[in-house]
Amino acid sequence: MNRYVIVGNGVAAAACIEGIRSTDRSGEITVVSAENRPVYCRPLISYYLEGKTDLARMNYREESFYEENGCAVLYGRKAERIDPAAKTVFLDGGETLPYTRLCVAAGSSPFVPPFKGLDTVPETYSFMTLDDALSLERATETPRDVLIVGAGLIGLKCAEGLHARAKSITVCDLADRVLSSILDAEDAAAVQAKLEENGIRFFLGNSVAEFRGNTALMQNGETVTFDVLVLAVGVRANAALVKDAGGETGRGIVVDASMRTTLPDVYAAGDCAEGPDASVGFNRVLAILPNAWLQGYTAGVNMAGGGAALENAIPMNSIGFFGLHTMTAGCRTGQEEVEHTPNGYRRLYTENGYLKGFALIGETRRAGLYTSLIRDKVPLESIDFTLLKQAATSAAFSREKRKTMFGGAKHAD
Amino acid sequence: MKRIYVNEEWCLGCRLCEYNCAFANSGLKNMAQALKGKPIFPRIHVEDNGRVTYAVSCRHCDDPLCVKSCIAGAIRKENGVVKIDRDRCVGCFTCVLVCPYGALAADENGVMQKCELCLANACGAPACVKGCPNNAIVYEEREEEA
């Protein structure tokens, strides 16, 4: 009988369980969960602080999920190393778990650069886990001044989540704009303006030079006083288990489209994995929930002996702040074309007859039509791209394609 | 299972399907009370490229990307129907980003909604199809083409 071990208990792990069980109903599955709770919707932690959801609704699967899928979950435990020759996982406390096939779905961890004086700050927080959100909830039971270091996705969603709870929120980043990993300067300015409208203050191109207790001395000489410090500078894939065992790693654990690592019978999925990105044609960490699920499921199917491949994973983000929705997908190479609408604008990138990427600011209706052109590598010559630039409508697709999409009604007269 | 299929040649572009959808999902008994003088948020929409029109609603995909992508675990497929638990939806729009048909849209409160074939409302079967004057959308069982 197969013995499956999954290190991690997030969305990629849940999908891995579902993938295994789609193919093998009987093998043993053991889940090593560092966090002391069943799988939850990690991206909802900011919505929790905002009051848009609660703990009961944050469960990603039913309470009976593990039992129904015949999984043993080891809560509050950490995998310390793996021995790929002996096919064994070593847990904290010395226990060992033999495996037939292993999936590392260990996620990522906050990266904290060495700020001078950080150890003098009385209250510092990360914003990665539900426990982090619960700590921040307690820390802001009375309105306090919050400083968030990092204007990326995590930092800004944290700012939005704390907005109604905090006395003030200041966000700083060494980058010259918000969301610098996905937005260009103009897009970022629109998002920043929305956040500023709501009272969030920014220091950009300007990080903390030194902390002195509850004061941050900025690089440009200004000072910011705060009660609560959130460090959201960046994250690093938890790749050490595979790296230390001799497997290939880059910014994450290197996997192919089947989610196999370079170690035999070891797979990886989710935020810790660096898998094929179809929009650029090389491997990248795609740390978003949809890819965590798709990668986890692909790994699970293959661990159980199936033949799944994830060939069309691309980076894509939908992120909204105070009602301004922004979406990005693929990469920004090739020719840029911008179309303004009453809601905002679309920025499309085409290269060699294909849509390569987009940024949609405010105008996000039916965005999946564009996403599908990137994912499915649809030749633009096969569609009315001129129309599609003006409006997100499947009417721009060919008659044959529309018939495949929508069925073509057979008439009963 | 029965699904909604489209025949764009027969569509008049009258948008009655949009109104019937909004009414069926309003929970109200009086159409005027439900729709008159209000912006409507139907779960079906008429596409128009100046040459053809046709109505698009959820295809209830065999391999639904929205289900896999929902960050709130709010979209499930049950008995062939892709359903959204609107109480769990936080309005992140990730489903809009991934749906290749453009079949999901927010309601007036920013909560996502989609066609659930009127199986759970008082109509019991797709109101859009019932009200289509020209059979441009049909609700029928057929073998899926690959």
Briefly say what this structure is.
The complex is a heterodimer of chains A (413) and B (146). Chain A has 413 residues and is of the alpha/beta class.
Keywords:
heterodimer; A: 413 residues; alpha/beta; FAD/NAD(P)-binding domain; five-stranded parallel beta sheet; 11 helices; B: 146 residues; alpha+beta; Alpha-Beta Plaits; two-stranded antiparallel ribbon; two-stranded antiparallel sheet; 8 strands
Instruction: Give the low-pLDDT segments of chain A.
Output: none
The CATH homology group name of the largest domain in chain A = FAD/NAD(P)-binding domain
Q: Distance N terminus to C terminus of chain B? A: 15 Å
Mean pLDDT across residues of chain A:
96
> Looking at CATH, which topology of the domain at 1-57 and 115-146 in chain B would you report?
Alpha-Beta Plaits
CATH class of the domain at 1-57 and 115-146 in chain B: Alpha Beta
The largest β sheet of chain B comes out as:
2 strands, antiparallel
Multimeric state: heterodimer
Distance between the termini of chain A: 57 Å
How many helices of chain B in DSSP terms?
5
Query: What is CATH's topology name of the largest domain in chain A?
Result: FAD/NAD(P)-binding domain
